[in-house]
Amino acid sequence: MGLAALEAAVRRDMEMLNLPAKDWVPRRQGVTDVIVIGAGMNGIAAAGSLLMRGIRNIRVLDAAAPGREGPWMTYARMEMLRSPKQLTGPCLGIPNLTYRAWHEARFGTPDWQALYKVPNAHWQDYLAWLQRVLELPLEHGVEVVSVAPADGVLRVECADGRVMLARRVVMATGRGGVGGFYWPDFVPRDLHPELAVHTNEERDFSALRGKSIGVIGAGPSALDNAAVAMEHGARDVQVYARRAQLPQINKGRGAGVGYHHGWAALPDDQRWSLMAYIQDLQAPPPHETVHRVLRLGAGINLGWAVTRAAREGDGVRLDFANGQTRRHDVLILGTGFLVDMAQVPELAEIAPHIALWGDRYQPPPELVRHDLAAFPYLGAGLELLPKSPDAPAELRQIHLLNYGAHCSFGGIASDIPAVSIGADRVAGAILHGLFREDFAALREQLEAFDEPELEGTPFFVPRNTP
């Protein structure tokens, strides 16, 4: 088919569906209706969903250079996506915007049929194609440092000194968007970056050639990093996990479309219990990743809980709960992401006012999970909610289409399967809010609308006819 033919098919789809909808939101001088922070998978879906609804006065900002948005070509070090290839992703419900359509147009249908899973680089190329074909108003190299209330709108400050005003802000800032990565207390911070790094940082793996590497954690990212270290010539890589056995079943994969749409309709006790159940079990690393690590010769040590890391000479000594010690030249921490709204730099001014799950729901003793309590408690459109009546009203105008939605909505803002569902929910909520706020002006427009339908028929009554 070819990409040019696919793009022509997309234009025809849009024309047949009458998309994007007509621009209908009244303009406010110097104010953008919606700023989307992040131009990765979620940001594309959010911006596309807004445009389809006729909300055209938007900006999409990303700190990265083109082709570096999101994790796919930075810290996501798997060889291929972990999701099945047939998932529709951020296609906005249009078949010709799916990854499959793009792949078949670029590589052919036989190649799609033979494909096992999607290579990371191809997924990144597909997302760049979506940015272009949807004509997103995208600005690269723009780092947002602050989002704060400003007399009914939001003041968005950028690292380059620019200040923008917006009626709504969508934070499509990924898994690290609600606190960054988690650095355990037993690893001294002064080991970073010479002797200890996190899996979610970019680094030059060629510098690990000939070295002994200790990897803390046995989740997917930890094992992917172990594999990449081996592929770049590390002398030895040992992975250490607290658990005596790896998780066996990815329960998230068993939570299908009903969960994606219905999670938020559950009462708080059921949402909490469900999240605790899934989190306690954890997700196993994909079997492809395990085979990759074993093929390369990295060791996986189960039941080896690290209690302390300390500098020893020009390396690091690890102490374990089983009484053992080991020494490595460099540590890689596969310890996941932190959820702490106080650590989100863009929201520093309003963080004390954000309602958390720990503020809104108290679970029974057997279900107390302090990490879940730290998640923001979001409204129906994934918007922040106030902790107390004295919170700034503008707080509700910030929507978290990132990992912060996980406890309130499940995986609709974290993973490929439900990305369009999450974006659709956010865009719908923004439309409702803008329509309510602009209703007086919209009503005036409606009353001023004067296009005679019956002109040319015997029943036409000219204006001002007595």
Fold and architecture overview:
With 466 residues, the protein is of the alpha/beta class. The chain has 2 domains: 282 residues, FAD/NAD(P)-binding domain, CATH 3.50.50; 110 residues, 3-Layer(bba) Sandwich (FAD/NAD(P)-binding domain). The strands form 3 sheets. Strands 1, 2, 3, 4, 5, 6 and 15 form a 7-stranded mixed β-sheet that branches. A 5-stranded parallel β-sheet has the order 7-14-8-9-10, with helices on one face. The radius of gyration is 25 Å and the shape is globular.
Q: Which helices and strands, and how do they pair?
A:
Layout: H1 3-17, E1 31-37, H2 41-52, E2 58-62, H3 99-107, H4 109-114, H5 120-133, E3 138-140, E4 144-150, E5 153-158, E6 163-171, E7 196-198, E8 212-216, H6 220-231, E9 236-241, H7 251-254, H8 257-262, H9 268-281, H10 287-296, E10 299-302, E11 306-312, E12 315-320, E13 325-328, E14 330-333, H11 357-360, H12 370-373, E15 398-400, H13 406-409, H14 419-437, H15 439-448
Parallel strand pairs: 1-2, 1-6, 2-3, 6-15, 7-14, 8-9, 8-14, 9-10
Antiparallel strand pairs: 4-5, 5-6, 11-12, 12-13
Helix pairs in contact: 2-14, 6-10
Features:
2 domains, FAD/NAD(P)-binding domain, single chain, 7-stranded mixed β-sheet, 17% strand, alpha/beta, 15 helices, globular, 466 residues, 5-stranded parallel β-sheet
| CATH class term of the largest domain | Alpha Beta
The major sheet is characterized as: 7 strands, mixed
- Overall, the morphology is globular
**N- to C-terminal separation?**
62 Å
User: Which structural class do the helices and strands define?
Assistant: alpha/beta
CATH architecture of the largest domain: 3-Layer(bba) Sandwich
Helix content: 25-40%
CATH fold-level name of the largest domain: FAD/NAD(P)-binding domain
CATH level-four homologous superfamily name of the largest domain? FAD/NAD(P)-binding domain
By DSSP, the count of extended strands is 15
Estimated share of beta-strand residues = 15-25%
Count of helix runs:
15
* Domain module count: 2
Uncertain runs with pLDDT below 50, 5 residues or more? none
**Rg from Cα:** 25 Å
Average pLDDT reading: 96
SSE pattern: HEHEHHHEEEEEEHEHHHHEEEEEHHEHHH
